[in-house]
Amino acid sequence: MRPMTDDADAPPSTPDPDDHVARLQAQIDAAKARRAGYRAAAADTVARGGPGRPTNEELGIIKTDDTAGRIAADASREVRSRLSRLLSRFGRGEKK
How many whole angstroms separate alpha carbon 61 and alpha carbon 54? Predict the structure, then answer.
């Protein structure tokens, strides 16, 4: 329990308006400084000719030598190879 004092009845102290204005001015100055930095960075980017284009690797583009024709040819060879092995194992279906 709190002890009862005369200070308990006193209204809370009001903040000093000058301190409040100084804090707001500091926030405004910081925002202006950030904006100036962003503008300088943008000017540098424009002076270089714009942002650099990302590489194909950065974009996730992967180039391979595989084309639809090559994939189909590989699949055809694989099927022929497996059929050949099956036929040699079980015979060519000759009836006796």
Answer: 11
Q: Domain ranges in the chain? A: 19-48
- The rounded distance, in Å, linking the Cα atoms of 95 and 77 is 28
Rounded Cα gap, residues 45 and 39, in angstroms: 10
Sorted by sequence, the CB contacts under 8 Å of residue 56 that are 6+ apart come out as 62, 63
| Contact present, 73 and 79 (Cβ < 8 Å) | no
> Is the pTM above the cut of 0.85?
no
Q: Give pLDDT tens digits for 27-72.
A: 999 999 999 999 999 999 889 888 788 888 888 888 777 788 888 8
Reading the block at residue 7, the tokens are 């200070």
Q: What are the counts of helices (DSSP H) followed by strands (DSSP E) for the chain?
A: 3, 0
